[in-house]
Write a structure and sequence with these properties.
The protein contains ten helices and eleven strands. By secondary structure, it is α+β, with helices and mostly antiparallel strands. The chain starts with 16 loop residues before the first strand and ends in a 13-residue tail after the last helix. The strands form three sheets. The protein has a five-stranded antiparallel sheet with strand order 1-2-5-3-4. A four-stranded antiparallel sheet has the order 6-9-10-11. A two-stranded antiparallel sheet has the order 7-8. A hairpin with a 2-residue loop joins strand 9 and strand 10. The radius of gyration is 25 Å and the shape is globular.
Length: 310
């Protein structure tokens, strides 16, 4: 994201920085306690907003909480001093380190998100986009594309502490069977890729894992036995055994492409029959009640729960 080109001094991008190590040694216990449990701290630098009223920051803190943040800390560089709710917990050396990490100068504000890595990335990314839009600093009239590659093959479930697939379990791991047998699963990447334009995912795809022995090992790491893999995906394994060649693909989201071309922010504005927030299609009056005859044709039965006895 780049700031509006009509303001030459604001053409620098909002680039987040990892400042975990600075807060790890600080007296700010709220962050230190979370860091000890595996959290990280992301800094979001924004220039030329030090003069915003307190209500601007309060609303942004409220928004951060609405999207799952535990809070949103910030520091303001103004008049040669550093102000903000957490400034008193930081030494001059720590403030200087944060200024270097976020390229902060007079008039700048640094926002801080502290959470588990995945949550911190999601929340700080959302706040970054909101700031760009609210401050009218998003580049207009341009389409900026990028390829996203090297997706992690596996991820750690924070609740169960078990390893599972991060995205498509049928993708080919980079390094093949050797990587699965010799490397830390969380360091293995897959041949998966996305095309993103202006922050919107337009297409997603992968190279298929077409070798049964690699599939067995990948699913074993994710906690599946060989028998489970055969029972659930035997049809696919049989196809591979007959000699399916290496292959892959990508699926474009045409509705999202049209959304960008139309200058809209939601696909509900460009698709023929959008659903409301209750998953209802008001144009088609769907979902609609079904008749007993329709249920019998599909061998379905509705078993309503009995009312609790008084």
């Amino acid at each position: 994201m780049r700031y509006g080109t009509d303001k030459p001094d604001l053409r620098i991008p909002i680039e987040m920085a990892d400042v975990t190590d600075v807060f790890r040694r600080s007296r700010f216990e709220a962050f230190r306690g979370l860091i000890e449990k595996g959290a990280v701290v992301r800094a979001i630098p924004v220039p030329a907003i030090a003069d915003r009223p307190r209500s601007f920051f309060d609303k942004l803190v409220d928004y951060a909480k609405e999207i799952g943040a535990k809070g949103l800390a910030y520091l303001i560089w103004t008049g040669g001093a550093v102000k903000g709710p957490i400034a008193k917990f930081l030494t001059p050396e720590e403030l200087a380190a944060l200024a270097r990490a976020g390229a902060a100068a007079d008039g700048h504000v640094l926002f801080f998100v502290c959470d588990r890595p995945a949550a911190a990335s999601r929340i700080s990314g959302d706040i970054r986009v909101k700031l760009g839009r609210d401050l009218d600093r998003v580049e207009r009239g341009a389409f900026r594309f990028c390829w996203v590659t090297d997706f992690p093959m596996f991820e750690l479930d924070e609740e169960t502490q078990r390893i599972g697939f991060s995205h498509n379990p049928f993708s080919m791991p980079q390094g093949g069977l050797e990587a699965l047998e010799t490397r830390d699963p969380l360091s293995i990447t897959a041949y998966q890729y996305d095309i993103v334009c202006n922050g919107v995912e337009l297409s997603s795809g992968a190279i298929r894992n077409h070798r049964p022995e690699i599939m067995y090992k990948a699913f074993e790491i994710a906690g599946y036995s060989r028998q489970e893999v055969e029972e659930r995906f035997g049809f696919m394994l049989n196809a591979f055994r007959y000699g399916a060649p290496p292959h892959g693909g990508i699926a474009p989201g045409v509705d999202r492409i049209v959304m960008l071309l139309a200058g809209e922010s939601s696909i509900r504005e460009v698709i023929a029959f959008p659903m409301n927030q209750r998953a209802q299609d008001l144009m088609m009056n769907a979902p609609a009640p079904v008749t007993e005859r329709q249920l019998r044709e599909l061998h379905l039965k509705i078993d309503w729960p009995k009312e609790a006895s008084k």
